[in-house]
């Protein structure tokens, strides 16, 4: 944004330009954006979409999941994509939709929870680390967010969750892979609280959903999915670690009744009833690309990707621990790393890294690094070299 020169508003050209001219303009201008291939995007939760998924996406651009009468087979593909994601989350018969991303999925989850409860219930109990899309959801749905502080492990404090529950509580949210540090909340405990209080428990696994099931020590990790009877819905984003092209999120509900709570049946379209949720016209290509990338990668493929990211995460972490002046916020559970400093202001550190060409994410007290599949060992080597040089210079100056 900073680099965009102030220019006159553009008007629609009278005569269309040639393709060649347009492509030239686009390459010149868009070529200045960051690219995943460069390895310089080290703070984002997205990555280069899988090449085959891109091909499939481009092939089926005309498909519209807003008109199921015209595209019943696309609807079936979407359903199967949800079933495959359901099988990953221990409930192949889950109901749900491929949507535009985690934001839409989380909004749909709270919308369904609200429509399933009595009107007096309007409070959502959630960790203070919840993604800002929950603030949007609360605003849209006129819900009140009760943000709960964290325990010493950066997870939501379950005692505080219990204390916050009252007659107006509508739902609880737990996060499997927080935006800031990739932390997994104590979801089995949240599930028990939800069951005991008859509340909807929504799990935001937008990022962690495609990581946690594929970790080496996965069997030793607490469950976060539909294996826990208290879990009512889960967000999982194929356009993050699932390698699908943007836009692709998914919302999964334990049963079709929950999904029905937010469906509108459009009756006037060819082929009769067409159930829709938030969107009307909806990209079928996204759902088809998700279906394809799931089939193409299989659990074996995702395991390989996740384990590759985790090996690099481990290497990065070990290197960070040797650099004077900076520390890890906490030992990362997944491929999201928080770096903090007691010496150097974190904004300054982020700026210095940005000046060296690294696009990191900046939180109030730490820098977030996400080791996505486009990060190669050489990128780790280069980033560590720059971090060392920044800290060396700073420590020298300070003395
Ligand atoms: N839930 C969690 C846990 C998330 O981390 C995010 C996004 C969402 C929901 C919302 O997902 P959508 O952005 O798909 O609607 N987390 C990323 C973040 O805030 C989004 C992102 C991704 C931002 C790539 C920048 C970027 O380059 O970091």
Structure report:
- Strands 1-7-6-5-4-2-3 form a seven-stranded mixed β-sheet, sandwiched between helices. A four-stranded antiparallel β-sheet has the order 10-11-13-12.
- It has helices spanning 19-30, 51-59, 72-88, 102-116, 133-141, 158-164, 187-197, 256-260, 284-320, 346-355, 377-398; strands at residues 95-99, 123-127, 144-148, 169-175, 200-205, 231-236, 249-253, 264-266, 274-276, 327-328, 336-340, 361-362, 367-370.
- It is an alpha/beta fold and 399 residues long.
- The protein has eleven helices and 13 strands.
- Helix 9 (284-320) packs across helix 11.
- It folds into two domains: 51-297, Type I PLP-dependent aspartate aminotransferase-like (Major domain) (Aspartate Aminotransferase, domain 2, 3-Layer(aba) Sandwich); 298-397, Aspartate Aminotransferase, domain 1 (Alpha-Beta Complex).
- The site of ligand 0PR has 17 residues, from helix 4.
- Ligand 0PR is lined by residues 44-46, 101-103, 106, 131, 133, 175, 179, 204, 206-207, 237, 249, 361.
**Radius of gyration based on Cα positions:** 22 Å
Which small compounds were modeled alongside the protein? ligand 0PR
Structural class: alpha/beta
What characterizes the major β-sheet? 7 strands, mixed
* CATH T-level topology of the largest domain: Aspartate Aminotransferase, domain 2
Order of helices and strands, N to C? HHHEHEHEHEHEEEHEEHEEHEEH
* Number of separate domains: 2
Report the uncertain regions. none
What's the overall geometry? globular
Give the CATH class of the largest domain: Alpha Beta
Helicity, in percent?
A: 25-40%
Provide the residue-averaged pLDDT.
96
CATH homolog superfamily of the largest domain: Type I PLP-dependent aspartate aminotransferase-like (Major domain)
User: How would you write the strand order of the largest sheet?
Assistant: 1-7-6-5-4-2-3
Question: How widely separated are the two ends?
Answer: 37 Å
Secondary structure tally, helices: 11
β-sheet strand percentage: 5-15%
CATH architecture of the largest domain: 3-Layer(aba) Sandwich
How many DSSP-defined strands? Answer: 13
